[in-house]
Amino acid sequence: MRNDAAQQLTRLLSGARAAGVAMVPVSGYRSYDTQASLYASYVQQYGQATADLISARPGHSEHQTGLTIDIGNANGACGLQECFGGTPSGVWAAQNAWRYGFIVRYPQGQTSITGYAYEPWHLRYVGLTIASEMRSHNLSTLEHYMGLPAAPSY
């Protein structure tokens, strides 16, 4: 991850630990080649339409920016699954990630805006100012905050 995002992630994980939540990083930076392989495997498993909902095409992944981290429960429960949102780590992240400059990038019910399925584990570092503004104005997506149109389809 980029240095500023990594420093805030360290603070976020410490904050979760202090609250009794055992949260762990799962997947951070991905190279183009890694993303290409991951995306291709999803296309093969599920078909392109589903793959486009659950994985970015190579060159379009937020993981390639160094600003994104997938988090999980230390015990592995609901790892990279929608049910993660209801676990202690998922609930804590949804309520507190903004305090560290992160947002849940693909919130529930916003697929038509973000272009991706709900991913309660996918945190995007946007900085303390933007995360706080999004929270105070009840803006659930970066598209809403930036006044962008809904994500284009491929």
Explain what the structure shows:
Helix 2 (32-46) packs across helix 3 (48-54). This protein is α+β, with helices and mostly antiparallel strands and 154 residues long. The longest helix has 16 residues, at 3-18. It folds into two domains: 3-29 and 66-146, Muramoyl-pentapeptide Carboxypeptidase, domain 2 (2-Layer Sandwich), CATH 3.30.1380.10; 30-59. It has helices at residues 3-18, 32-46, 48-54, 88-96, 111-114, 128-136, 142-146, and strands at 23-27, 68-73, 102-106, 119-125.
Instruction: Calculate Rg over CA atoms.
Output: 15 Å
User: What do the pLDDT scores average to?
Assistant: 95
The CATH architecture of the largest domain can be named as 2-Layer Sandwich
Uncertain segments are: none
* SSE pattern: HEHHEHEHEHH
Helix content: 40-55%
Please state roughly what percent of the residues sit in beta strands, choosing from under 5%, 5-15%, 15-25%, 25-35%, 35-45% or over 45%.
Answer: 5-15%
Most strands sheet: 4 strands, antiparallel
CATH topology of the largest domain: Muramoyl-pentapeptide Carboxypeptidase, domain 2
Shape: globular
SS field, number of helical segments: 7
Count structural domains: 2
Number of strands: 4
CATH class of the largest domain: Alpha Beta
Structural class: alpha+beta
Distance between the termini: 27 Å
Tell me the strand order in the biggest sheet: 1-2-4-3
